[in-house]
What does this fold into?
Amino acid sequence: MGILKFKFGAVAGVAAVTALAFSAPADAQTTQAAREVIVGTPGFTNNGGLDIITKAFEAETGIKVIVKSGGMDDIKKLATDGTADAVFLPADEMDQVKGAIKAGTRKRIGRSYQGLAVMKGAKIPDISTKEKFIAALKSANRVMHSRCNGAPGGPGCTKTSYMLSSLFDLPEMAGVKHAASPYGEGGDALARGEGDMAVQNISQIMKWDNLVVVGPIPEEYGRYLDAVAAVPSKAAHQDLGQQFIQYATQPGTFAIWYSRGVDPRKGSQ
It folds into this structure.
């Protein structure tokens, strides 16, 4: 089965900001000018387009956005104690705090893909099928990935770390020369010159000027996160949290998410 071909790049995302059009009336923007909305997000959604969308939202509405970024457990705590007005999480992680979420506010963001990276200037392999992806990995001298120590989901092995490191435990990956990054993620190690390929969340590969995103890991491997957003039932400013989520999921933002490896057309809700 083939995989989606993304057009990656900050330029596409920035250009798309000009197309956003929020429907808040002018008088509402005036009365809300001094207000703030607190948004909790893990790195994969913040780097996946939310950083751009946040700036556009502030410029258009006059509402200041305070971003609280952290790991999955940190964001779930923001949801349960209501210290954020909107939270972004993988769908299965949001399920774990569904009792703390205001009914009817949960919305799909999209499917955030893990991808393959190479150094800028290196040959770009074809990874459009599972077979071609495996062949590309086997051609590498060393494929870098996240380190996973301890139980999956624990402090030494985050959800994405396990997702990426366990890829190389699959039988078909026998013969692939790979290594865990001594610190940071796989893309961080590749950017330091510690390998010739790396697997990591696409949005986080893109922070490195000397790396190129080859494409997403073939979808059959399930190496992706389905992102959703919702308003905590204890949030102080539920109206602003809902307004921010509506803004972040309007069709005008799709090009921004898509440019960072997130497909708004796919994923759980």
